[in-house]
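agent> Task received from the user: take the single chain below, predict its 3D structure, and emit structure tokens. No templates, no multimer pairing.
agent> Plan: (1) validate residues, (2) run structure prediction, (3) serialize to tokens, (4) report one or two observations.
agent> Step 1 OK, no nonstandard residues flagged.
tool_call: predict_structure(input=
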Amino acid sequence: MAATEDLESLPGVGPATADKLTESGFDSYQGIAVASPGELSNTADIGESTAADIINAARDAADIGGFETGANVLERREQIGKLSWQVDEVDDLLGGGVETQSITEVYGEFGAGKSQVTHQLSVNVQLPQEYGGLEGSAIFIDSEDTFRPERIAQMVRGLPDDALAAAMDQREIEGSPNSEEAMDELIDAILDNIHVAKAFNSNHQILLAQKSQDIASEHEDSDWPVRLVCVDSLTAHFRAEYVGRGELAQRQQKLNKHLHDIDKVGNLYNAATVVTNQVASNPDSYFGDPTQPIGGNILGHKSTFRMYLRKSKGTKRIVRLVDAPNLADGEAVMRVEEEGLQPE
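)
tool_result: status=success, residues=344
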């Protein structure tokens, strides 16, 4: 990662500008290269033409922004990780699990299990790769006061014994999954690797998404790099604060910017990005399910994968893949139990 003095080698960047850029999270050529001139101009208090020159120089230095062959794209996509739900039927639906460098949207009505998914993935991401994990830490932006460490503890205890044993070996925890002391130590270690922030309004939520890039940067070369970003829920504050058609355009504009900030973290640091979304009922729908995700086309186009959760009998949930660029639509069934997400 470039240090502040490295940024000063870019044209138009002196010590003061380099400090402003670094304080705002633009501490690498790569981070600057994917910024917009307006964004950099506001951050560092410089003109847009100067900002454009800085961005172009950063793109040259980071070797970003050119065309590449399809073969190169395929090679780069081989670096993409798949994060398991620990439910085979759902993983098969997703072609192996939640992709890194993509936004996966999970929407559904109240009580469908959206927050359960984000909690489970925050545990699973820390598992060894052979058990469906990405051996990394998680960022959890909580806009609805849903994060519960007690729920994380239940889900850790609900993991298969072989996955638990591997997770303990990974952290050099002595003992077995049957040891209460070893289990408590593992739970504490997993909670330490979940970076949680509560968003109090939409502006605060946008700020937290930008700050998540700082956290990912700080942990990039650590033993536990950030491999998952969860936002639960993406749309709650926007929906509450921007009411009526008169404020729709402003809401969508801010939501679009917010999604790009989140997506940037996933792409720069090879992390999976999972956002939950609320739903509304369409009274004009006479046939089929009237439940529709909110966020409009902005969210629909930006989400790489869209998944719809709906309630079934008891603890059963229907998971439907609504949209994906390379996968067929389909449905799977899972259960939401005290031990976490379980196969039917």
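agent> Step 4: summary for the user.
The first strand starts at residue 82 and ends at 83.
agent> Done.
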